Amino acid sequence: MRELLLVRFGEIFLKGLNRPYFLRELVKRIRHAVKDVGGQVWLHDGRIFVSDFTDQEECIRRVTKVFGVHSVCPAIEMPKDDFDAIAAQAVKMMEGLNGTFKVDARRSDKKYPMSSPEINMELGGRILDARPDLKVVMKNPQHMLNIEIREMCYLYVRVVMAVGGMPVGTNGRATLLLSGGIDSPVAGWMIAKRGVQINAVHFHSYPYTSDRAKEKVLTLAKILSESCCGIRVHIVPFTHIQMEIHDKCPDEYTTLIMRRYMMRIAERVAQQEDCQALITGESIGQVASQTMQALGTTDSVVSMPVFRPLIGFDKSEIIDIANKIGTFETSSLPYEDCCTVFTPRHPATHPKMEKILWGEERLDSEALIQEAMDGIEVVTV
Ligand code: ATP
Ligand code: MG
Q: I need a labelling partner for 35 at 20 to 30 A (CA). Which of 58, 127, 170, 316 fits?
């Protein structure tokens, strides 16, 4: 008899012929997640198992963060031929639980001498003999004792819900524009959840933005990497571009022009990193640079698709997700971002393209972009 985790996966079920590929990728991701807690991970009989961990709760916490995992069940594995031992274990697993319960048996071993309804009846009866305070109900029981008869017998009561989604890397690659704010980490998380491997670009305006601001972004990337399997963060020196824009472009257009340079540089990084899309944390109307017209002017400088998964979300909804994924606290630290350093007093909300182009013509764009590209520092978290 031993303790292990039974890992249930969600949408991979829908995959037809590609299912073995998705499962193999999921196993790799789970292995990566639990390697520090000594977990052994294997695929057998259409199920993923984790065993030999040094710390069960930490192992569960890590596996539930892996995209593609639907839920994790801490289970007991034991031989299936000694029904008395199984019943004793079932009684033990109900210790400390009160109220109503139901036994739910499943057999993949169709030669097993008892049918699933027989197992339900017999185990339910044995539990009630030992625990007359409990009550069996068929509808909405407080506790479900699951028993699976495969090559071995598996018993579990607790089901810990996981993040869902698809295994990272099974749906291409994208580059996230990661600021130190609340929105962009959430945007990256949402796209990665669909199986996209992400890397990040962060624009840093030293000395106007501090080293602490940079560290904050790396901390955010590290939190994301628990689900996203390692993230390469490209730190782009952005001070010179910002100063040039500030000096030479119309004041109410500086934010928009700056955002256009961010997109151009992010696209070049994305091409180098073999990515197919960009991701930002924008949402319609949240700030002046996120009106529909403004978003149009930033989109038009790149040819890659730009994913904005938060486009229809309210700030409070974004904060709920940030709390769930554990980035909110770090995002709320009060360090400056390069967007806030040279904010115009009256940013254009209905920008005119001629004015943007007039401003940009006064800059040596190619040289500025190349200088920024040459100064990139890459940190893998
Ligand atoms: P966030 O919480 O993402 O900072 P925000 O409401 O502060 O959002 P803006 O500052 O207008 O929004 O930025 C919009 C988007 O531009 C961000 O979601 C992010 O994708 C990108 N962005 C902003 N600043 C930076 C930066 N310094 N480095 C990289 N990307 C950035
Ligand atoms: Mg921001």
A: 170
